[in-house]
Amino acid sequence: MTEGSKVNENIKNLSMQVNLDDFIPATAEEKEYMVQMRPSTTAFKDGIRRLRKNKVAMVSFYIIVIITLAAIFVPMFWPYKYEMMLGMQPGKPVDATFNNLKPFEYSTTEQALRDQGQSVFPHIFGTDSAGRDYFIRVVYGTRISLAVGFFASIIVLVIGLLVGSVSGYAGGKVDMVIMRIVDIIYSLPDMLMVILLASVLKMTLASKLEGTPLAKIGSNIISLFIIFALLYWVSMARLVRGQILSLREQEYVLAAQAAGAKGSWVIRKHLLPNCVSVIVISTALQIPSAIFTESYLSFLGLGVNAPMPSLGSLASDALNGLSSYPYRLVIPAIVISLIVLSLNLFGDGLRDAFDPKLNG
Amino acid sequence: MSTELKSVQPLIEVRHLKQYFNINTGFFKSTPLKAVDDISFTIREGETLGLVGESGCGKTTAGRTILHLYQPTAGEIIYRGKSIKTPKDVEEFRTKATMVFQDPYSSLDPRMTVADIIGEPLDVHHMYKSQEERRQKILELMDHVGLNSEHAARYAHEFSGGQRQRVGIARALAVDPDFIVCDEPVSALDVSIQAQVINMFDELQDQMGLTYLFIAHDLLVVRHISDRIAVMYLGRMVELADADEIYNRPLHPYTKALISAVPVPDPNVARANKRIALTGEIPSPLNAPSGCPFHTRCPYAKPMCSESMPPFKEVEKGRFVACHRTEEINS
Amino acid sequence: MALLEVKDLHTSFFTDAGEVRAVNGVSFNLERGKILGIVGESGSGKSVTAYSIMQILAGTGKIVSGSIKLDGQELVGAGENVMKDVRGNKISIIFQDPMTSLNPTYTIGQQLMEAILLHTDRNKQQSWDRAVEMLRLVNVNEPEKRMKQYPHEFSGGMRQRVMIAMALACEPDILIADEPTTALDVTIQAGILELMKDIQKQIGMAIIMITHDLGVVAQLCDEVIVMYAGGICEQGTAEEIFYNPCHEYTKGLLRSIPTVDDSGEKLQPISGTPIDLLNMPKGCPFAPRCDNAMKICMRARCERMEINDKHAAACWMNVRKAVKGE
């Protein structure tokens, strides 16, 4: 077959498929119909969609929600209080059978009531050596640990955000001075500093707080917060500074400046909104590390004031009877691990979903 | 758009403008990077002045310094006969001179809606009395640049490059300026979209009497849109002339090389073209050569070229060239 | 037999938002010693076509169907071992950004020699000689001295020359150049294009030049493929495409760029915006932007049709011409 006839063949084939009406020009509406913009999405909606697809992150999220809700609401209706020594009721003799109950065990008094047909609320995790219901102590300890983690992260966030954005935006000498301070704090052995500060603050604060409403929270928790405020803001400040530095080079910042916008406008309208996702993510990842710090300080006896429990102090107390009651160490340890693991996994999920650098 | 029709009144005058950046080259040591080194020119009201050059020649810096986005190291920018000096002058100038950016992606804040992006200059300068007035102005601007008003509440990332650049242009028009610095506004766009945007610049100029400084590296585009073209090399201006003149009869050796290197979209012309090959690479502006910055690559260089910087002088009416040997090499 | 035969290639990216058909039925042949230009805008599928040939698709990209034959050997589904031998040895690729394609911690010489040692059975000394020879071929001055330098001591244009040297070190049959000059300045670009043309004449390999710049195509290519939204609109010799365009997209593209003898007249842009690949219409993907779109364009894609023996296009306007005898 020659080239020419092949060409003709080709045209004939194609022409068979059409009739003349097909060659009427298409209307504008028809063309418009072909291109429809996809429904509006925002980066936020996109992120949520990605997050929802991440099973691990979602499971972690639900675990965190359940634990948090439990920590808030369970103490409200639980028949026992965390500081209540069940064996020492006013007007009654001390009942030592309440002490050191095994899970779902009852003291002699309670057993007597049960024999009479009354229902007695069980001690799910038993009681501790002072006759306090262990379950409610774990729940309450969780509440304290979560609260410490959350508020410490907020403190870190506020200080880090402030210092970091000033340092990043101002640049020059200001930036250099701030960053050298950050370097110095970084170079301190933080474990040592934390322990040192905690024991010093514990002594000085205790007397100062006497009689103020803060006394109820306890000098130890306050000193914990001070430690976080002093030591842990540095990584947040660095992160924010880095973000601001890179965002500052974006053309939209230049565009705002070309439109006549001043520094505070640029920070407020452009820089901060654009680093929100990164800040939220790293705050979420900060919470578990705060919980961890609180736990080990409590474990070392530098944490919350007795009788208030935290997961760390519960674990510490359990050391005494470790051979007889190992579950008293295991339970708070599991709760800590669960919280820290879930928060970390959820934070990672947040980062995958919202940090644009990782998903191109 | 012939030049005769346009007024000869200079809208912007740039006099001996210098912009040096200090680059840290070691501990406690910094070297000035002469991004823009003593350039002078005028932009007439209603014209488009094209500014071309290769990367690192200082064209973008020049555009930004003219708008006082960088504080000039030396020199003056004169707008309608008045030198811009105090911060108050600058603030006023910002309502008369705006900018369109190269990258339609990074120049629009991803967290803002189209309406808020376009409205930002209005917000900054408090240029409306009520929210309703603001909304009206924004919709008008969107209509002006061919954007559908339904898109006002959408985010910039939902649009294609061409549409995003329209948003950028609408933002530049918001304060009703009479001078716009266009910094490579089409080079990030697809070929088929470039023409849309170029035509829009043309139409807006006709409707609103705008004056442009059009910075680009694509010579064919610059020549199409500009009345006059200025060529920069290593922070210096080497030639300034009427657009067709400079394209058809370049006088400076660098301009000659630049124009011969343009890839022409026409196979027969492209293959017949004799390119002037330049030897060597563009020197770093951190240690620019002495004398004429181009002498290291210039096929016509003589010893004198490395000794003194040739003056930027008018060789013919309206034609400025900075070359010691203009006459010899062009006769 | 053609050196490279691509037949009905379909490549998709599977994203969260759905399947993106980046390449949608692409077929072409590449003869030995020819320079083929693939032009198209962003999202046209020109780079993905090249990456499919090399099978270096990023992330979720996958060749869905089609055939790629190199010297008669089928590459689709041939497996990673075969591809390892093909890549660098028979087909080399250079990328747009010469800044990131080189490893900053090794000298130019080490990187060149590594490529040579990996793909040929030369020993160290021979590799060194070969590397120097390659640098000389791409017009790098003082190649022996340059061998010992690190990438940061090279400018953009020089790095791209090194990349070309590296790509050619093993004498591949095909060099794929993915926008090799887009990041470079015009005067540097001119040098690189000239170099590619010279080397092609000397060595005789085939080049696939991927670009968005019609000027580059006009200067360099023998044959041209015009792509839009993952499909081929038109293909033929450079002369045919530039002087006798037969697809409405190509015509529009040529009308919309400023020409050499610019008369100051308005450009004629292609209206509308590029197609959303996630939301592809049923008919011709260019129809929504086409001034001459007809009813049938809304309904069906036109098949490829031979205009003459050097030229083929997929546009219903040609069928209309033939049917109506215009």
Could you explain how this protein is built, in words?
- The complex is a heterotrimer of chains A (360), B (331) and C (326).
- Chain A has helices at 3-16, 28-34, 43-53, 55-77, 108-115, 134-170, 172-187, 190-209, 214-217, 219-248, 251-258, 263-299, 311-318, 327-354.
- Chain A is mainly alpha-helical and 360 residues long.
- In chain A, α11 (251-258) crosses α12 (263-299).
- Chain B has two domains: 3-96 and 177-329, Rossmann fold (3-Layer(aba) Sandwich); 106-176, no CATH class.
- In chain B, the strands form two sheets. An eight-stranded mixed β-sheet of chain B has the order 6-7-8-3-9-10-12-11, sandwiched between helices. Chain B has a four-stranded antiparallel β-sheet with strand order 2-1-4-5.
- Chain B is globular.
- Chain C has 326 residues and is α/β, with parallel strands linked by helices.
- Chain C contains twelve helices and twelve strands.
- In chain C, α3 (108-119) crosses α4 and α4 crosses α6.
- Chains in contact: A-B, A-C, B-C.
- The A-B interface holds A 37-38, 40-43, 250-252, 254-261, 265, 269-270, 273-274 and B 64, 67, 69, 91, 94-95, 98-99, 101-103, 106-112, 120-121, 124-125, 153-155, 157-158, 168, 171, 174-175.
What labels would you give this structure?
heterotrimer, A: 360 residues, mainly alpha, MetI-like fold, 0% strand, flat, B: 331 residues, alpha/beta, Rossmann fold, 2 domains, four-stranded antiparallel beta sheet
Rounded average pLDDT of chain A: 81
Please give the radius of gyration of chain C in angstroms: 21 Å
| Biggest sheet descriptor of chain A | none
What's the mean pLDDT score of chain C?
Answer: 88
- Helix/strand-derived class of chain C? alpha/beta
Please name the two chains that share the biggest interface, counting residues whose Cβ lies under 8 Å from a Cβ on the partner chain: B-C, 46 and 45 residues
CATH architecture term of the largest domain in chain A: Orthogonal Bundle
Portion of residues within helices of chain A: 55-70%
Give the oligomer, counting copies of the same chain as homo and different chains as hetero.
Answer: heterotrimer
The share of residues in extended strands of chain C comes to: 15-25%
**How many H/I helices of chain C?**
12
Number of domains of chain A: 2
Distance between the termini of chain C: 36 Å
Class of the largest domain in chain A in CATH? Answer: Mainly Alpha
Helicity level of chain C: 25-40%
